[in-house]
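Example record

The entry below shows one chain as it appears in the dataset: sequence first, then structure tokens.
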Amino acid sequence: MAPGPSAPASFPRGLPSVPRLGIATRGNTTLDPIDVHFAFERGVRYFNWCGKPDGLSRAAREFGPRRREIVFATQIKARSADAANRELDWILEETGGSRLDIGTLYYVESPEEWRAITGPGGAWEALVARRRAGDLGLLGLTSHQRRLAAKCALERAADGTRRLDMLMIRYNAAHTGAEFDVFPDSQSRGLPIVTFTGLRWRDLLRPTPDDPPGFEPPGAADCYRFCMAHPAVAVALAAPNGRAELQEALRALDSPGVPSARWMQKMREHGRRVHRHAREFW
């Protein structure tokens, strides 16, 4: 049975268990430090930073001793070892931490990129060394290419250890392919999955021409609750723009039970309608 939306998610390597809704920033959204602290007080413990100085990076420096209660994640764009070392040093300096809890290789979209990252002088070489040194908790991968990500997650290094500790994958009621391409292997291997694009760029919040009479599109909290309902999903990320959107996202933590099969079916049917009618689907 799927865990309820409020059931905690567990991560390896000594990271704390966290509620299964996470808050992210993007380059085109705004959260002030006070918003981040508000989310913390409401129970959020997983924060994904966009990699640009913003309210989340400022709030991270303000957490002080309570920083150990959160999982702080960001994406790493570097492809070479030297660039990865420089980027991780900058991340730690900018966010005031002694360790980055989770770093995911950002938007790995082709086998060629993965080979460059894991080849001689690639970013993986540097990041796994920093993981051993304690500067990095988990090393993951962010991708839109589900099958590629699943294949990378199965790969092992020469010493037999798994290269990746987690995956960050797009998943929502309109993008459900991960249920077939990623989740079965991740569940069988205990690999945490963090999902993004839970609103499908807000298209899931809008009506479609095929909606049945009287249908009301779901709210943002419903969309995140749908993602959190899948047992393979450790954390579903929300990327709210401002306090009002943040408060709506946080409502996903207010429904502790497992959604009913009828509710899930209605979400899936809406997702299929969005898939048919929304803007370019990639």
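Notes for this example: The beta strands are 21-24, 46-49, 71-76, 100-105, 136-143, 166-170, 193-196, 233-238. The mean pLDDT is 94.
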